[in-house]
Amino acid sequence: MTPPETATSARRPSADGATTSAQRSAVGPALGAALLWLGSRLTLLALFFGAELTVWWDVYYYFTKITGLPTAGLAHTLVEYPTPVVWWLQLPQLLGGHGQTAYVALFMTLMGLLDAGLTAWLWVRGRRAGSTAAAYYWMVFILLIGPLVYTRFDLLPSVLAAVALLLLARAPGVSGGLVAVGAAIKLWPALLITGLFGRRRSRTAVWIGFVATGVVLVVLSLVAGGWDRLVSPLTWQGGRGLQIESVWATPAMVNVLAHPGRYVIQFSSFQAYEVFGPGVGPLLTVASVATVVGGLAILALGVRAWLSRGHDLYTDAMIMTAVIAVMIVTNKTFSPQYLIWLGGPLAVLVLSRSGRAAATDRGLLVLPLVLAVLTQLIFPLFYGWLTDAGPGTGRTLMTLVLAVRNIGMLAFTVMAFGRAWSLLGADRTAAVDPDDPDDPDDPDDRSDVRKPR
Questions:
Q1: What's the pTM?
Q2: CA distance 157 to 433
Q3: 422: CB partners within 8 A, 6+ apart
Q4: Fewest CB atoms within 10 Å of the CB: 62, 184, 250, 267?
Q5: Which residues pair with 275 in a beta bridge?
Q6: pLDDT band at 21 (very low <50, low <70, confident <90, very high)
């Protein structure tokens, strides 16, 4: 006769069996996600070797500058970028990319590894939270921008922003440091510090990480390249003209259709196509004023975030998204790779939507996908219709696409900023992040938040 306890244990599934079953159930979705990533990235490579081969030019530019570094010196190499960018762009060469083809291949491989790493992280975090939508959103967003993603280093600050958000609950000091590293790559990510104020008790650690990392990078840059090289990116940006894709160039580009003889579109010494002609001067002035206004708006948003009683990861990601959008639309330049900056925070925004209504901010998430498609159409697919073609259907069509893209970008910015502002005005009663599956949910964090009276 079987003892009762033995019979019971025979009917009850073991913990090891349950674990094995759960692991097996995760294999299928994980494999599917991996195959989708691989298929979409092979599509990018097919586009790269086909209709969009011209996007490799920037990597070639990096290669020539890095190759000439011993002769020109750091003080005269890639002066449009912060000094640490030169060190980053030396990495493909250090890995064996001494020839042009090898350098391009290694550069694109490094970008692919960044892309794959963030995709995997988002998938694992999403799996724990009950939805892997963030990983798929990131995959689709990158695909819609095109192979340009792998031939510019703008993917790096986008990934750094996402990782800073993902680590905020566990390692706020590291998050602050990552934002500082992003600033050392592109300058503007310094403003993303405003998206790391959600957990009140972590703010000191965020600032320590940000300032300490920033000081180290500034000192290293100063020692390596000197003062003039340290500030050269700022002087470079100040001297640029009105890039044809920028929001503020839209009136001039539309006017080119009506009065083509009055305008000149040419490749400037700033490595970009700029428009020259009637009204361009005032438009540059408006862009400069808009940059100041945008900076003040970001400052106000940052102060509002600092004064909040605590907010969740969703709000932090929305703040970062709004800050990036403001930086893009107020600038007198709008290179196509700028749109990549939005990808990281948007993916974390999708990740942290758990527990919210399915329709929450759906427009804010769909619109960037549309903007990505339009941007890829503008550059590189039909860029020649804007820069080289004379009056005709091609230029008219692409000018209209450019105008729609820029109006859409303006609309997105207003939506994102307004949403971030309103989220900070909501009554938050805890500084812990309920949307973060890695949040330790320390009860002590709640004591830091002033309860409503």
A1: 0.90
A2: 24
A3: none
A4: 267
A5: 265
A6: low
